[in-house]
Structures are given as structure tokens and as C-alpha cells.
Records
---
Amino acid sequence: MRKEIRSVYFDTDLNIEAYSLKGIVQKFPNHFHDYYVIGFIESGKRHLSCKNKSYNIGPGDVTIFNPNDNHTCEQIDNWPLDYRSINIKLDIMKKVVYEITNKDYVPYFTENVLFNSDLINSLGELHRMIVKEEKEFKKEEIFFFVMEQLISEYSDCSRVTNLQESNMQINAICEFLEDNYTRNITLNELSNLTGISKYHLLRSFAKQKGISPYSYLEAIRINEAKKFLEKGFSPVEVALKTGFTDQSHFTNFFKKFIGITPKQYMKIFLVKDEEQLNEK
């Protein structure tokens, strides 16, 4: 059996993350991110579900997830997954779009899967240069050319301000979960907040968001945990700050969703800070 290798890198020139997952057989549960994810498969095949649509994806296919796009994937054959991605936060994407279009907005990508995409080679080269920590301007050039093609061919400018339309009750639930993610929340609270029954609430939320309220809460906790880890907080501290019962629960949960441990994720930002200090 192949050994799993899970690595994450941060490029200080582009201010984006790069993920590398090799030999993975893990199923990733239904979740979302608060940033854009542009990924591609080196080897292996996966069954992907995203926003209530299903795809079988493999080598040569590109995946694109907007912030809040719920998705899950699992193995569909006996071959482990080798997967690469670049992750772009909203504020960075906004700057990139302005550079390319001279307009102030964030894009909504309408296609979650690009089959047999001609972007594969460029994305692979960009990912390799980030991993190798190369500094030449070719890396930035590739990045902007890739983003220009994605934005011009696969984004919808009419959906730039609200990435996922929903009604007032669902918005109220989302805001409540985002403001109270550190504590124990009950379904009764959400029902009282919206004035609708618990069952109707669950069905309506899942229909509009593609994910259950509790899974939405889990994703918020993981996304907030990443921010604390980036600032140098220890996994023990982060577990307490984000509503997890203990560090072990937090570590297992983080790895299930992100693919690496909190300590591995924190390490790349500690290395980055040390390098910046050495340069001064």
C-alpha cells in the first residue's frame, strides 16, 4: 500500500496556498471553504458531488470551487488519489480580478469541473514552481494567464456580490452560526430564531445550501481554525477557541476535512515567518 503524503505550501509572492496530496484513499465529507479552490488530479479517479450535481473525475480534469460551494468526494476504484490544488482567499482574488479586468469584484465560477482541460499543464507548472519556492517572474506570469482564462471563460459577472442566493431565514441561520460557532448550539435555538419547525428548517437549509446546518457549523469552525493556526496559535489553543471538545477531536476533525493535521498546517506559516525575519 502506498504511503500517504500530505503537504501544504504558502507562496509569499502570490499570497496563495498550494496543496499536494499523494496516495490518498480517504473520503472527504460534505463541506465547503471560505476561499476559492482550483485543483487537478495527477492520478486516481474520484466521484465528486458538488451543489447537488455528481461527476466522475480523473487525470486531466480541473475542479473549481467558489467560496461556500459544498462538495464531497470519494474513491471509485482501487487506485489512490494524487491531487494538487491552489487556494485563493477572497481578498487576494479581488486584487487579481482588478489586475486583470480593472474592475472591483470577486468572480463566481459557473463550472465546477473542466473535463480534459487545456489548463492542466499550466496549473501543473505553477504548482511545481510554488512547491520548489521558485522566485522567477514566470511563476506570476503563469498565474495571471491561468486566472485570466478562468475568469473570462468560466465566471458569471452577474453573480459577483452574493455567491449563493438564499432567503432571509436561511441567511439569519448562517449569520447566527458564524457569530456563535465557539459554543454549543441547539436546533431549538435555530428554530426559535427563524420561527419555523426543526424539520422544515433542516430541509430548507439543506435544499438551499446543499449542506446541513451542523455541517455548515463544522466548516465554519475549520475555516476559523485555519486562521488561528496561520497566526501561530498552537493546536491546543485553537481547539479551545473554535468550539472543539479537546485537541484530539480537533486534530482528527481537521485532518478529515483538510487532509493534513493542524500541526502540519501551522508549520508552513511558522517557516514563512522565520524566513521573513531572516531577510530583515
---
Amino acid sequence: MFKKMKERKGEVKTVRKIVGIIALVVLIVIAIAGYSSYNYITSALEPVDPESNKKIEVEIPMGSGITSISSILEQKGIIKDASIFKYYTKFKNESDFQAGNYSLTQSMTLDEIIESLKTGRVYREPVFTMTVPEGLTLEQIANVVEKNTSHSAEKFMERVTNQSFIEQMMTEYPELLTEDILKENVRYALEGYLYPATYPFFEKDPTLDDVIKTMLSSMNTIVSEYTTILAEKEMSVHEFLTFASLLEEEATAQTDRETIASVFYNRMKIDMPLQTDPTVLYALGSHKDRVLYEDLEVKNPYNTYVNVGLPPGPIAGAGKTSIEATLNPTETDYLYFLADKEGTNHFAKSYDEHLANIEKYLR
């Protein structure tokens, strides 16, 4: 009896040992599976290729649900796993995705992809932004580019004045860059054609061509809004941006640009020189706090004190306000204006009135 009991005891121990081993193996398998699943899910939530900026065209058809959208994105290689993307959007309670054509990249996060599909436009967090203020010349923009990118101001100026590059841009933006920019006496062909704005860049070190094209493309978009009205006014794009640049440079914080525009138009109608100081400074090629009488006599095509009409080309990059004021001047009989020490403009119809304003507001 004792012998049998001893044998049973040994069998129980063996069974327990086997069960323990099986249990341990199961736990290890579960742990490995869990760890692998965790790694897989974590990886699936990350961009497919953080370094890729290659654009992939994706079409989301009308009526597409999250399941079909997820499948399309996976097939195009924008996301790693359709199911993970689907459950991620449900977890975040995201919906109302818009149909359309998108240019997406493998470096976009799931949140950026979701935001793009919700807004109907490609949305990405920029690596950096670069602000080009209104009223800057090409040489001043070159300094902005140098401060924000790896490209020197000298290299920027070399590129924007390169004849082959200019001709290439004329081919790419034929409605914006016409033969007018190549006319005699135009200092820089692309002066005034790089739109002032805050630009997002999605790669750490964009090429110089990408930087320049981004600004040209923005100006092309802006100008295209006014194609019809320019045709009605029989005004060329070059004249348009040249006029707008004068308004931009004359502007102060409190400037009434539409009224200043009326002064310039009124003068041009009677062949009266525009006599705007910023053109003198541009002719001199240097900034001065005060324009002297001797400066007004400088012989240069851009000097509107000695030349009638618009200068050969823009003298700076005009913003939207100046661009719109160019096409929507106030109806006035004014021929003169001046800004007082606070920046408020005072207008006059005659030279005597203008002299009185000088005496009243500047002395």
C-alpha cells in the first residue's frame, strides 16, 4: 500500500511539473505574442518612411467609408496597416472624410493624413517656416533666405539673376512672367515677383530652386485672381506689380492705399511725374532715412522725379492689400499727399494746398 502511495505521489509531482512547464511555455508564448503585437501596432502608428518627401497621388472616391479609405491608403503605401488605421480613427472618433485627389507622402503621420482627409487639402506639420515681409527687395529677401536656410544670400542672388533659370521660370509661369521682365533698364527680372508671405517647408534643407519656386507659385496664384480685371483695364501684369510695389513702399501703418493709388493714377493721366521717394532710394541702391534734394536729381530710369510714368519694373514685393488697392483706387482729384510724423496721410488737390500741409504737419 505504501509502495503504491509513493508511486502515485511521484506521478502527481511529474504531472504538476509538466503542467507547470506547459503553463510557463504558454505564458512565454503569450508574452512574445503580446510584445510582437505591441511592436507591430506601434510601428503601424508611425510614418511608413519619415525621410520620404516623394508625393504619391491618392484618389478617394465619393461615398468611400473608412474601411475602403484605409484599404486605398495601404495599397498606395501611405500607411502600414489598413486595420490599424481604421481602428485608430475610430478610437479618436474621427469621421467626415472628404473625397478627392490628394498628393500624400510616406513621411506623413496618421494625424496629418486624417487632417488632410477631413479638410480636403494636404495637411502636414512643417519642419520650419520662413516669413518674407511685404515691401522687401530681392536683395533683402536674399538675406531672409540666408537666415532661414543653408543657402547664402549671394547664391540666392546668383540664382534669381541667372538667365537660364529666368527663362525656365518664364516657361513654367507664362501668365506671370512675360517678356516685360526682360526689357531694357529692368534691374532684376524677378524683382517684385516673389510673393511676401509666411511659407511652410516640409523638409529640413529645401533646394534653392524649391524656395524660389514656392514664392513665384504663390504670386502666380494671387495674380491669376485678377486676370479678367487686368484685361478690362488693359494693364499688363508687369505694370500691375510695378504700381502695387510703389503703393507698398509708400505705405505706413495708417496709410490709405486706395487714395494714394488715386493720386498716382491722377498724375499719370496728366503726364505728371509720380515723384515717389522709394523709387529714388531704389535708383540709388541704398536705404536712407531722409531723401535729399540732390538725390531727387539722380539720373536713373527708376527715379520717378525725373521720369514720367511708372519705373521700368517693381521696386519691391507687394502684399495683397497693395495689390488690391492698385485695382480699386478711390475716386479723387488729389495730386499730392504726405505722411505726418504719426504716419497719417494728408492729401491735396493743388500744390498750394500741399505746401500748406507741409507747413502744418511737418514743421
